[in-house]
Amino acid sequence: MAQERQETREQEVARVRSYVASQALRRTPAQLVETLQDAHQQFLTAVATVPDALSRTTPSEGEWSALDVLLHMRTMAAFDASAIAEVLERGEQPPDIQDAIVPAPQEMTRSDLLADLERFRQQLRAVVLQAGPNAHLDIIWSHPEFGAMNWREWLLFARVHTLDHARQIQAIATALVAVTPLAYLAAKTSRIHLGTGIMQIGARTPAMIAMTAMTMSALSQNRFVLGLGGSGPQVIEGWHGVPFARPLQRTREVIDIVRMIARGERLTYTGEIYHLPLPGSEGKALVSFAQPRQNLPIYLATLGPKNLELTGELAESARRRWYVSACAPIKEPE
What we know:
Helix content is 48%, strand content 8%. By secondary structure, it is α/β, with parallel strands linked by helices. Helix 3 packs parallel to helix 4 (110-130). The chain has helices spanning 9-23, 29-48, 66-90, 110-130, 151-174, 180-188, 206-219, 233-236, 247-262, 305-317; strands spanning 141-143, 147-149, 194-195, 199-200, 224-229, 269-270, 275-276, 298-300, 328-330. The strands form three sheets. Strands 3, 4, 5, 8 and 9 form a five-stranded mixed beta sheet that branches. The protein has a two-stranded antiparallel ribbon with strand order 1-2. The chain has ten helices and nine strands. Mean pLDDT is 87; it is low at 317-328. It folds into two domains: 11-174, Four Helix Bundle (Hemerythrin (Met), subunit A) (Up-down Bundle); 180-330, Alpha-Beta Barrel (TIM Barrel), CATH 3.20.20.30.
C-alpha cells in the first residue's frame, strides 16, 4: 500500500492560490459571504470545545493557546472588514497585511474577543452585500505568503484561513482535558460556578458523563454546570476512534440517560443508539451510589440550525425558558 504523501507548504500555498483565483469570480458576493459565514460557524464550534479555564493553556511549550488563535482571528477579521470597506466604499488602496499570531495579553477575555469577531464579520457582510459584484476589482493588496488578491479573492482566502484555524483549535482541544482543572478550581473557590465548555459527548459513555458531573457537583457544593457538545468527526473519529454518526440523536439520548442517572433512577434505557443494560449480556440495571442531583444544569454547545432546534425542543420539554448564544442551557423542570 502506497504511503500518503505529505503536502509541502509550497504545494499548499499553490493549491490555495489556485482555488481562490478560480472560484472568486464564479460565485456571487452573497455566495462568497455565505461560504465565509459557514467557516466562521465551524470556527466558533471549535472554540466552544476548549474549556474557558484552559483557553490560555498551550498544549506544549512553544505552541499557541486557544486564546492566542482567537485573538489572531479577531485581528484578521478586523483587517478584512476595514480593508474591503476601504475598497468598496471609498475606492482606496488598503495596506498589505502582516499575518502573524501573537500571545494574547492578560487583560483580553474570550467573551470580548468573540464579540469583536462577530461584530467584524457582520460589518464585512453588510459592506459586501451592498456592493456591486465587479466594483473595484482592479484594487489589490497582498498577503506576505499568498500574494496579491482583490476583495473577492480575499473573501475566499478568509474562508480558507478560518477553516485552517478551526482545525488548529480542534487540535488544541484534543490535547486538553475539560474536567481535571475544574476539580482543582472547586477546591480553591467557594462561590463561582464551574462548567465544562465543552465535554465531548463521543469521548465518554453517558454513564461516565453522569458520574463525572455528579462527582463534580459534590466536590463543588452544587456549583458545577455540565457543558456538552458533539464536537466533530475530525476529533471524534480521528482522536477517540468513535464513529461520528447521528450526532443529534446521540445528544438527545445522552441527555436522557444523564438525567435518569442524576435523578437516582435505576438505569434501563432503550433508544436508537443506546440500549442499557446491553441486550444479551450479563449487565444489570444499576443505580448510582452518588447523591442524586435533581436539578443538574446542562448546557449544550449548539450553533447549527438543527442543533438549535434540538436545544429548543429539549428546553421546552423541561418547561423552562432558554437562552442561546455559543451555548444553550437545558434544565430540568422545577
